[in-house]
Amino acid sequence: MSSANDPGLRSWIPVSEDSHFPIQNLPFGVFSVGGEQPRVGVAIGEFVLDLCALFESGKLRVQGLEENVFAASSLNPFIACGRSVWTDVRNTLSNLLREGSGELRDDASLRDRVLISRTDVRLHLPIEIADYVDFYSSEYHATNVGRMFRPDNPLMPNWKHLPVGYNGRSSSVVVSGTPIRRPMGQTKSDDAPAPSYGPSRLLDFELEVGFYVGVETALGSQLDVSRAESAIFGVCLVNDWSARDIQKWEYQPLGPFLSKSFGTSVSPWVVMLEAFEPFRCDGPVQDPAVLPYLSQSEPRGVDMNLEVWLKSASMTQPLKIAATNFKHMYWSMAQQLAHQTVNGTNLRIGDLYASGTVSGPTEFERGCMLELTWRGEQPIRLAETGEERKFLADGDEVTMTGWCQGQGYRVGFGEVTGQILPAIG
Ligand code: CA
Fold it and tell me: How far is it, in rounded angstroms, from Cα 27 to Cα 30?
């Protein structure tokens, strides 16, 4: 195991047991203070460590890192340095921050320059996103949604043979905290003779986990499933906002289009895939056996807790409305990438791949309102105000959080949040 993942490590920076940002995590993001230029930082406890300033100080010495790639408004220049640089930077930071290391701790003026309270920073979209693909890889989610529309045959015949996905829209991926405008569009209810135009009335969230590609591959080449994880830079939380009424009318035969492209929220912190190494676990048994190009021997899953919280405009506290685990996903990240490239599709640095809605076996483990309220038939009651929700109302704020639980520490993302604004028009 990487020494940066050692469960026994502690930092000289105090980190509470329930913080998502202990020394074992060190997730990357882009931040700014006041009107200053955005730059790259790492979260540790209640602080952001300014990698741009740390590099300038000469304390971040890593082979292959000649220029200050942290003086950038995205992680892309850093990611382009390659895996050995990512790993060496993480290990160097781990060494600087661990208990007993005085190089940064004892340099008061440098310490004050590079450690900034997280409450004083603004977090930006961390990556310039190239392509965005969304999968549909939870058997529980696919079965639940399928059952609503095809009770006798919920899973499509292809579902257990390939990770179903569609090409999404990268231009409208936004960082956590960005408000989401209720989309206008075309919908048609079953009993209406013709479609109508107006604000979506069935606005939903989708709880997902995404990953960013960290390499370029050539058009016409394939990425073997056994090497696919080496192409992944890091992992994030994703909320794939979805307008169910627009989706229902538009999706056949080419899949979702305007029902998804109006906004997708991502967490500001990107956790390197190797930080999840201690939390890897087996995925569900794949039966029938998958084709050889999708057959993966190493553990496919990650034991990661995921929660969804909802706060209406009248509530003072958010209410937890769902909790599940990423380990339930039928198709793994490696299988998704192997499938994406089996036809020769090239990968680009900054490609975002989202898992699809993460749902688990029980009712509270359903990762979207469509499932939680069963198409609105079983509304969620918001106890504090007595309000009910079948789908999202204007002013509702949805917050998702995710973390892996270690012995006395957590490796997580913080959160991805967004509030619904009324439609224009
Ligand atoms: Ca989705």
Answer: 10
Q: Any bridge partners for residue 389, and if so which?
A: 380
pLDDT in tens, 310-367: 999 999 999 999 999 999 999 999 999 999 999 999 999 999 999 999 999 999 999 9
| Residues carrying an active site annotation | 141
Cis omega (within 30 of 0) on the bond before 253?
yes
Rounded Cα distance between 129 and 173, Å, is 8
CA of 143 to the centre of ligand 1 (A): 14
- Give residue 354 CA to ligand 1 midpoint distance, Å: 7
Give distance in angstroms: CA of 45 to centre of ligand 1. Answer: 31
Q: Which residues surround ligand 1, an ion (CB under 5 A)?
A: 134, 206, 240
Residue ranges and CATH numbers for the domains of the chain are: 3-124 (2.30.30.230), 132-421 (3.90.850.10)
Q: How far apart are CA 224 and CA 341, in angstroms?
A: 9
Going along 79-168, which residue ranges are E strands?
115-117, 122-124, 132-135, 165-167
Residue showing tokens 């028009």: 425
Centroid of ligand 1 to alpha carbon of 259 (angstroms):
10
Q: Do residues 163 and 142 lie in contact, with contact meaning Cβ atoms separated by under 8 Å?
A: no
- pTM, two decimal places: 0.98
Kindly state the helix (H) or strand (E) to which residue 96 belongs, with its residue range: helix 83-97
